[in-house]
Amino acid sequence: MGRDNPPSADWVAQRLIDLKLADERDIRDVWSTIGSRAASADEFLTILVGREILTNYQVELLLAGEKTGFFFGDYKALYQIGAGAFAKVYRAVHTKTGEIVALKVLREDLGEDAKQYSQFIREGKIGLEIQHKNIAGIRAVYSKKNMHFLVMDFIEGQNLRKLVRIRKKLDPKMATKLTCDIAAGLAYAAEKGLTHRDMKLSNVLVTMDGTAKLVDFGLAGLDTPDNNKKKASKSGKNTEPEVDRTVDYVTLERITKVKKDDERSDIFFLGCMFYEMLTGKPALEEASKDRIKRTSEERFRAIAPIRQLDPTLPDSVIVCVKKAMSLDPRRRYQTPTMMHKDLLRVLDRIDADVAKRAERLAADDKAAKSSGHIATNNSGILSCSKSGSTMVQGAAIDTADPNQQEGGFFAATASGVNIAAALGEGPTVSTQLPQILVVEADEKTQGIFRNYFKKSGYKVILTRDPHWAYSQVRGRSIRVGCIILSALKLGENAVKVYREFLLRDVGNTVPILLILDKKQESWKDEVEVDDNHQVVVLPVKMRELRKKVASLFKKDI
User: What is the pTM (predicted TM-score) of this model?
Assistant: First the structure.
């Protein structure tokens, strides 16, 4: 309880001795320094703070007339360094050994609730078993009468949430490194059968050397009905309310029809954290005051494409974010270990990927300035060849003999080809056959694709150049209902273009089928797949391939 009149130095001295914040020797030394008993309380306290006998936090409590909050067991609180919905965190010192630690102290109102403090202590004991470099370690658990706290490693550094706010956003390499650390911690906990269920930036501490450490495993389950209200500390300061991620977990699991404690839910929210580190914007619209909005499925489906927020991000990073945040849990990383391994691969090549992305954007800008449409010119974009075939980008469209393959690009139907329609020029008529773009470098395989799908009622366009195919479809120079990308001979070029289609969101409107051979099967785990973007690994029957294409067209077989 506070005092109506300013305290005297004598009153302060006696209170310090009574509370065991200073001993008589400390007090005598201060009086000796001042040289007079007529000093003010402020002057007296200033000397004690300067000598590091007191901290400003302790002074605030003292002047407020508080009798508690100074000591927790054998530990003396030095500063309050954080506060959440259910606990406060202090930097503290052991009164006998002088060791500096962090104390997570359960709020007093919850300390009298047997259900709440029992869960707090139970989760603390679980934390004792989790010892990993990317998880803030718990050293001891204390529970006596109404006082319950965890003794934790004190980490020199800062909260990841504050770091992102200060820097606005993190560069791709740093964001990937921190996400990789967090995934490693999650993977270790998953091996112990534990999920986190409160994945958010404020639950990650970043050390001075840039290592991320997860905190608060399992504590999200504590019942905190006043979660969205500001809590006042004993020093009189309000602490910022935290978003209760538990509501988001429940909503996600309802939408995706998975059980509570599915480790893929932690992965989704780790993806959200990665997204926010890279862009400075939260993936999910903040709606902490509106529970209806918080629990809305639309909130999860309205996440802005990360490429839209930052076009300079490298493809490898974007693929990781999108895979982690897939609303279809089957398309998400299935375990934290899988995500961690992927992030290690990305981190290993991220400098080169950032440079390549910058080069590609520069090339795209240059190309956009030099050509905005298809026109007849000397470069052969649209002209006549001596063979009687029509040339498009230097490759033949076969209009007569289906076996004639002078170039790498063909469009053949039973009744010939409408060049203007194939190039996206002129009117589109409803009687046109469904059109497939096949990207295949091998001429023999081109012929197989052309003849089979032609007989199945499709118009087939073939090219051996995946980058040309990408530029034409993206620029809407040609209109197709489905793209088949064959990596059999093109290798990683086909995979890169597949990713580019998705990253540029062209894949949102044009279904894509990527074909790999058995030796390339490992690439399947490195690309995103969903209902409109599929991967097939050979061998496969042509009839099955046709069914797959038909399903992408949403066409009845």
Answer: 0.64
